[in-house]
User: Which sequence fits this backbone?
């Protein structure tokens, strides 16, 4: 359905998917999970993250998928951090940058881009380190590599931070993809408080021409209408 509507496809947790079956659909894949386990905080977590990033790159190559998504730590099936961490020590910032430099190098060598996503900690992902848009933008800027960009999720930003257009303007130089959903409820544009046509107009004026992805639950369990609303919000 997504492919037939003219959209690319993003997938989460490739370990639960039949990769060959996905290939056979003829869909174009825009982004996928870039890790299975691990985190940016400690040595063992970094080793796991790097190992699973390598595995994910193999799958990305099979799917011809250009971007692989990361978070500050591994998340469980409910989206909660496997090891919650509400405060990050100074030395852990430098460790995170070093780990991301190594991941970015893997991406560059494979011709892929890893993206690190900001998450909200107020509703969906409490205890996730490096979660704010400011933190993720800082890490990407510190690494300064074409193999690492920011996946700027406007839903998460609205829940925790707000001021979407100005925050977008601040982080845009490091953005590799933008994800959207409305607030509250993480539904498609037009169902909540965010003026997505206004955001779309601001993005055009900023010169953004990259990928904008819908990561949302369809309201009224109507996926077709959800895609239509997404298209309407971001059409010229």
Assistant:
């Amino acid at each position: 359905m997504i492919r037939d509507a003219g959209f690319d496809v993003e997938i989460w947790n490739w370990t639960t998917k039949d990769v060959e079956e996905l290939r056979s659909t003829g869909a174009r894949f825009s982004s996928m999970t870039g890790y299975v386990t691990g985190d940016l905080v400690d040595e063992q977590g970094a080793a796991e993250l790097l190992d699973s990033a390598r595995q994910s790159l193999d799958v990305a190559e099979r799917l011809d998928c250009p971007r692989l998504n990361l978070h500050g730590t591994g998340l469980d099936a409910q989206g909660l951090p496997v090891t919650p961490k509400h405060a990050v020590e100074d030395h852990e910032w430098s460790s995170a940058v070093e780990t991301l430099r190594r991941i970015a190098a893997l991406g560059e060598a494979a011709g892929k881009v890893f993206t690190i996503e900001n998450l909200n900690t107020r509703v969906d992902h409490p205890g996730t380190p490096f979660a704010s848009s400011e933190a993720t933008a800082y890490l990407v800027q510190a690494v300064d590599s074409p193999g690492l960009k920011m996946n700027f999720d406007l839903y998460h930003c609205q829940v925790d931070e707000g001021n979407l257009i100005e925050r977008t303007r601040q982080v845009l130089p490091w953005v590799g993809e933008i994800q959207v959903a409305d607030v509250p409820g993480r539904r498609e544009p037009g169902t909540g408080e965010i003026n997505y046509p206004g955001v779309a107009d601001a993005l055009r004026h900023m010169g953004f021409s990259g990928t904008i992805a819908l990561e949302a639950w369809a309201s009224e369990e109507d996926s077709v209408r959800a895609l239509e609303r997404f298209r309407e919000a971001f059409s010229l």
Notes: The first strand starts at residue 9 and ends at 11. The CA atoms of residues 84 and 127 lie 4 Å apart. The chain has a mean pLDDT of 96. The chain is about 40% helix and 15% strand.
